[in-house]
Amino acid sequence: MSEKLYTMVAGGALEANSTFNVRCNCGGNAPITPESVAGYGYSKKGGPTKIVDRLETKCLNCNTGIVVSVLEGDPGYVLTKHGNKEMLFLPQGSTSKPVAELTVGEHEAIIQEMKKNMPDE
Ligand SMILES: [Zn+2]
User: Could you tell me which of 1, 3, 4, 6 has the C-alpha nearest to residue 91?
Assistant: First the structure.
């Protein structure tokens, strides 16, 4: 039994005529072909980040199944929670600075900014 990987991709990075390679944890690539994306047409702007498509691909190197959530446009960072720790995740293909290159201060500032825009629970 093999574990599946879950990742997110910025829809804006998917171009109509080219294949996008999702990076696997092993360093290999898992291709998303234009034909495999059902929800093409990222026309709507604004509002909360929407998942416009969910598809599955396979790493060409290790054969791990990868479930990809395609986000609308290039939404930048996504806030995730691991236990009590809040972390930023950057969808693959985004033009924003990789999370690993952010300073602790930048990381914190982005999280605070995101929280301001969140509706109260
Ligand atoms: Zn792999």
Answer: 6
CA-wise closest residue to 71 among 88, 48, 87: 48
- Give the distance (Å) from ligand 1 centre to CA of residue 22: 10
Phi-psi region of 41 (alpha: psi -120 to 50; beta: other; left: phi over 0): left
Distance between Cα 87 and ligand 1 center (Å): 24
Give the CA radius of gyration of the chain: 15
pTM of the model: 0.79
Q: Nearest to residue 55, comparing CAs of 76, 74, 34, 73? A: 34
pLDDT in tens, 46-81: 455 677 788 899 999 999 999 999 888 888 999 888
Q: How far is CA 110 from the centre of its chain?
A: 17
pLDDT per position as a tens digit, 5-31: 999 999 888 877 789 999 999 999 999
27 CA to centre of ligand 1 in angstroms: 6
CA of 48 relative to ligand 1 center, distance in Å: 31
